Structure formats: structure tokens, C-alpha cells
Amino acid sequence: MAPRQPHNTEKSRALDTYVKLMRATESVTTGAHRQLSTSGLTVSQFGVLEALYHLGPMSQSEIGQKILRSSGNMTMVIDNLEKRKLVRRMRNQVDRRFLIVHLTDKGEKLIAKIFPDHATEITRQLEVLTPSEQQTLGKLCKKLGLKDRL
């Protein structure tokens, strides 16, 4: 068996924090997405519908940036949503090279029906934290997520 590396407080702290962050993320995500199976949506499909519902029509690349998915993945996700008639692609009137994704009436009805339960579950998952702790966690996560942009 290979010898362990010498104790390094900085690395140990970072790794310990990382493991806790991943475990917490997995726990909250599992609970928050549990009800998606009843709607027949994947997490990515739900993300697309939710983004369009709250932000309005967008290009595929804009949606991908919002829900942190690659452009190749977005094409497949939107293709599948289009097959179910939940979204439609339309040419941008200003620049016809771009397609803009819109919710259909059917898509809007579905996301309007399932989003409240999703929001309630997220609230339930995070209620272990005080409102102040939730704000602090949000600020810390934003700081961590923006570290490469600074």
C-alpha cells in the first residue's frame, strides 16, 4: 500500500469542504428533482422549461448557459421537448441565422403545474438553514461560482 501524503492543512480543509459541498448538493438535488419523474421530464428538460417560463424565449446557447449544459446536449434536450410539443423553435426576426426557443401553451401549462411543487420542495430542503444562513450560503456559492471570472 502506498504511503499517505503528509498532512497538509490547506489541502485537507479544501478536500473536506469539497466533500461536504458535494454531499449537500446531491442531497438537495435528489429531493428537489424527485417529483420530476411523475411529469416524465429529465432534469435538463425541466431546466429548459423553467428557464423559458421565468425568462422568456431564448436561443439554445443562452438556455445552455443558464442551465449549465453543453450546446450538443441542448440540441438533444430541445429536440425531445419539441417532439412532445412543449417548446417550438422559431427563426429570430432580427437575425435569421438564430433559432429562438419558445414555450408552447402545452409546455407553459406543464411547467406552471409542476414548478410550485418544485419550489416547495427546495424550500423544504433548505429550511434546515435559517434565512440568514441561506443568504450566507447563497453569497458563498456565488463567490465560488464566479472565482474564474474575477
Nearest-integer average pLDDT: 89
Spell out the helices and strands N to C. HHHEHHEEHH
The proportion of residues in beta strands is: 5-15%
Helix content: 55-70%
Number of strands: 3
Number of domains: 1
> How big is the Rg?
19 Å
Span between N and C termini?
A: 41 Å
What is the CATH top level name? Mainly Alpha
Q: Pick out the low-confidence regions.
A: none
Instruction: Specify the overall morphology.
Output: globular
Task: Give the number of helices.
Answer: 7
Concise description?
The chain is mainly alpha-helical and 150 residues long.
Provide the descriptors you would attach to this structure in a database record.
150 residues; mainly alpha; Arc Repressor Mutant, subunit A; three-stranded antiparallel sheet; 3 strands; 8% strand
Structure description:
The chain has 150 residues and is mainly α. It has one domain (38-149): Arc Repressor Mutant, subunit A, CATH 1.10.10.10. The chain has a three-stranded antiparallel β-sheet with strand order 1-3-2. The protein has helices at 9-33, 36-39, 43-55, 60-67, 71-83, 105-126, 131-145, and strands at residues 58-59, 87-91, 99-103.
